[in-house]
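For homework, think about our next protein:
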Amino acid sequence: MPDLLLNVIDNLALHQLADFHFIRPWWLLAIIPLYLFMRFVVKSEDSLSQWQDHMSDTMIYHLAIKEQQKRRLTPKKLFMLFAVLITLVMAGPTWQQQPTPFFTDESVLIIGLDVSASMNSSDVQPSRLLRAKQKVNEVLQKRGDAKTALIAFAGSAHVAMPITQDKEMIRHFLDVLDSSIMPASGKVPQSVLPAAETLLAQVKAPSSILLLTDQTNQLAVNGFKNLLTGTPHQMVVWAIGENPDSGLASSTGLSASDLSLLEELANAGNGNMVPFTHNSDDVEMVLRSLNNTLQNVDDNSLPWFDAGYLLLFLLIPLQALWFRKGWTMQW
């Protein structure tokens, strides 16, 4: 589990590092004259160099006054630090986009929840189905009023809630879903295809299918591949069950072949497979996968967050030093 958390943090850091750039990069050219000015200042301060042709180094060492040279913080050095920080502020460093009130999220999340008998297994307490419902509620809470639809499936699939922005209504229908109310027993994940296709026909932006299940088959893999290939939509598969790599899996947990086929299903749907975790790591991974589709909706219209303003807080204590007695006299 700690390794999974570290991987999540590393992936997030690498993603932000890949997006790092300057909004106004031409301001960085100001560093060139600042560097030349600093060289001139340093050279002008070296008053001993003019005596090296007339005195020995030993005599210069004993005659020179060292107090001024020992000072590490001078107005000139402070000015250069201040100028470099101001240049970075003006260049506008950034690594993430910010939402805008003029941007409307038209993407839809279609949740396909497996309510078949195998979801009543208790390898994750109290059962796979109850934990899956809890995870869905966490996703709904974090997504707010984003457009969402709910499909329940076992031996057949049925739209429990059409596309809506009322997450409380979805929660109400989610609570009552159980294998006992399904008209057909068994597990037929490909039965979700007609309902998902109907819902996707109503959307106006790249959207996601989130399938929560513990098993799949090759028919579902081929079916979702045909449905999503060549479209901007994606499928995220949430493997509900104890992961065999966690070291906690019992004989009733997910097998390696189950996970392999679920991952193949996710790849066929242009998405990724998210393994179940006992904390919220898997929820965050799902949300990031869904956000990738959202960002593809209209990336160019989202403004970049100007982080240069944060550097202004570093300039406040530097600016305060200019009020020291005699500070400006030392230039």
Observations:
- Residues 2-18 form the longest helix (17 residues).
- Residues 18-96+305-330 form one domain.
- The chain is about 40% helix and 10% strand.
